[in-house]
Amino acid sequence: xxxxxxxxxxxxxxxxxxxxxxxxxxxxxxxxxxxxxxxxxxxxxxxxxxxxxxxxxxxxxxxxxxxxxxxxxxxxxxxxxxxxxxxxxxxxxxxxxxxxxxxxxxxxxxxxxxxxxxxxxxxxxxxxxxxxxxxxxxxxxxxxxxxxxxxxxxxxxxxxxxxxxxxxxxxxxxxxxxxxxxxxxxxxxxxxxxxxxxxxxxxxxxxxxxxxxxxxxxxxxxxxxxxxxxxxxxxxxxxxxxxxxxxxxxxxxxxxxxxxxxxxxxxxxxxxxxxxxxxxxxxxxxxxxxxxxxxxxxxxxxxxxxxxxxxxxxxxxxxxxxxxxxxxxxxxxxxxxxxxxxxxxxxxxxxxxxxxxxxxxxxxxxxxxxxxxxxxxxxxxxxxxxxxxxxxxxxxxxxxxxxxxxxxxxxxxxxxxxxxxxxxxxxxxxxxxxxxxxxxxxxxxxxxxxxxxxxxxxxxxxxxxxxxxxxxxxxxx
Length: 477
Fold this sequence. Notes:
Blueprint: E1 2-3, E2 10-11, E3 18-25, H1 29-38, E4 43-49, H2 55-62, E5 66-70, H3 81-93, E6 98-104, H4 108-116, E7 121-125, H5 129-145, H6 164-176, E8 183-186, H7 193-202, E9 212-215, H8 224-229, E10 230-231, E11 243-244, H9 246-249, E12 254-258, H10 265-277, E13 279-281, E14 288-290, E15 294-299, H11 303-308, H12 314-320, E16 323-326, H13 337-351, H14 361-368, H15 375-389, E17 425-426, E18 429-430, H16 435-449, H17 454-461, H18 465-475
Parallel strand pairs: 3-4, 3-5, 5-6, 6-7, 8-15, 8-16, 9-12, 12-15
Antiparallel strand pairs: 1-2, 10-11, 13-14, 17-18
Helix pairs in contact: 3-4, 13-15, 16-17
């Protein structure tokens, strides 16, 4: 029996209810009242809470299939961070519970971030009843089927495309992969240096062991030796047990050191010594430990120029540079943009359970017209967000709104590079905004947008937290 709120009369509903337990949390009394009327018409069990206080206990006691979670619970605080926090808490404790985020339009970007963290979907307020019910129904169905594995970026296979440059790199990889030759991979941020390193390892005789990788730029100088070479118990205040460093962990396998150009000059000698001796001495110990590794390094920096400037050791440069592979930027591989976009579309349509299986003509034109300064990583991130936001079966131009700029022609001339001051020379004129100024502005904007949440800021800028810390200190933020 349900009550018609317009007439106050009770009558039998002819609507079939789904067997599903919905737990909804929203601090707005009007919204709770509306949900209390709507949801029981469609679902067998509904419980509605005014705040997340006691949420974990309620989720366990009620045995919720789906949690409809508001993203903000305090007046005048509209960051969405509360919703992301409770999402993480729910997914860490109840892995099979599906979470649908309830969000205002202004928080859509954070809701997208929530889906990356495991939310099933999101519904924007004010909602359409059919959309809300359909989303919760799908979430209930997914709960009954169980959560499929969504994969990991490190497991991405190498996409070679059809350009002559990538074909030449593929031939080189096939020749060198079976050897133990050290490899240096260079290229702009986002071209796929880590994916190429994984492909070299996959084709090597060491592929039976997991490749070990690290972002050297994210390791603090004080922890460099401990992280790479290991330490023994009592070596320093927090050394409560023996620790195997990256070299020892990778023994018998491949060690991938990303951002190799960020190693301070005084630590380069220690790395060189280990590479020469093929043995590490842990911090706090005197005994060398033999290691058997195949080394792959990557950087977006001009190491040869740094050698000439005395910022990178020449002997270390030769040691890591037995084979040098330079990956061209995506703007020089224009024919690969759409095949890559389609590959990412298939990946994220499956991951986020979206019925999207193609790219519309206008959307394709927009993708082809972008400079993709962030290369393959930027394209992948763009398609991921577009798939999440899409509502049709084809990716449309509307789905790309706010994710890319308007169509741009690819320049016929080579990309302009900054001069020694960091400024871009254009038509004989000097742009007054340096690269550092642009970076500082981007960081300040992100800090404002995410209300100082460093994890969110680092993720949005695609940098590690340690790197963010150093940049905040650099710019006095």
